[in-house]
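Re-run with default settings, no changes from the original entry. Doing this only to confirm the output is reproducible before filing.
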Amino acid sequence: MKLYYHPISTTSRPIMQFCADNDIPIETEVVDLLTGAHHREPFISINPNRMVPVLDDDGFILTESSAILKYLAEKFDSPAYPKDLRQRARVNEIMDWFNTNLYREFGYNMVYPQIFPHHARKPADANKITVDWGREKALACLTLLDQNILGPQKHYLCGDDITIADYFGAALLTLGEVIGVKFARFPNVNRWLDRMKGRPSWNAVNEAHHGFVAAMKEKVPTFVSIN
């Protein structure tokens, strides 16, 4: 199996983390997003959507981070994707919620328009409106995550045991570190993230992400953020 990815990619990191934690043998190939390699051959023939990650399992091409996590968990019979129908449905529900609610507002409406020029709306006033909207909606999502999805009792998103939803969600939230987001006002989110960051492979997998965060640190005061 080969994974096409980039080490700072928000959607690549959960797959790398899951594989590292579960000793899943996987060949990797970096697609250099910073030089536009995802917009050139041979990658666009592999994924015409021009995004990472992409999994190639003996010619079976699979895109989308959530789908790849489910596929790998099923292929390697991981308890992180429960067999029980209702438990699995809960994992799917949480992953869908992160993808269609939190990531849309937190990532695409608040974070990305501030750090990537190709995500910025034009004119500048439109970008400000988008970012402010994203922040407001992201706060609502984080409140829901803190009080309803996690609450004070759960160790992980779906209960006492880690699931692929935790790998997926933690990577999406730590994207906010690039613009200086702090989760102190969300104690249950903070506690859960600390638990995920305490995993033995976390620092190795997220080394490039940490470097990106450090490189952006001097710009943090100018960003619209959450503290």
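The two ends are 40 Å apart (CA to CA). The longest helix spans residues 85-115.
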